[in-house]
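Quick log. Single chain, no ligands specified.
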Amino acid sequence: MGKSDVNLAALIGSRICHDLISPIGAINNGLELLGMAGGDTGPEMDLIQESVGNASARIRFFRIAFGAAGEQMMGRAEVVSILRDLMEGARLTVAWGPMDAQPRAEVRMAFLALLCVEAAMPYGGRIEISVDGGNWTLHGRADKLNIDQPLWNILATKDAPSDLRPAQVQFALLPLVAADASRRVTTEIAVEDIRLKF
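-> predicted structure:
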């Protein structure tokens, strides 16, 4: 996949997320109005509100991870808000280390890397994201990791198999986006620790 293909895929991702966030936001506003009007707030309404919140959090995250990056900066508060909403109720916790605003293109790579590390931690754990001198590290710790080695090989070889599933697309996309930024993705995998750097 060439750089133009990556850019086209990013524009498609941005378009889809942009078009979905408005109706989901409208549903959420409608639910709030129902609540203010004294409407039914039973378990059915709670389930709808939880599902809408989850969908909104995922779209905000995917818009950064799979959308066009642009040149703008992203502040710590915005990134932490996205990650907090995304991980609400999950067995996985994510700690965003950078205190300063970061380029959206680098946050995009960090989010793609997060999806990779998350895939190795299906039973939960903790992921710490840090940057030092422009070098990013994602450190995941869990009692049990589940490493699908062929997927992790893609990060080094950039050769994605033809049978790659949609849930694994981050493994194919991250090394291409990193290469466009003159970065190389490296990994260190131990029994209970995994580090992904770029």
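Residues 1-68 form one domain.
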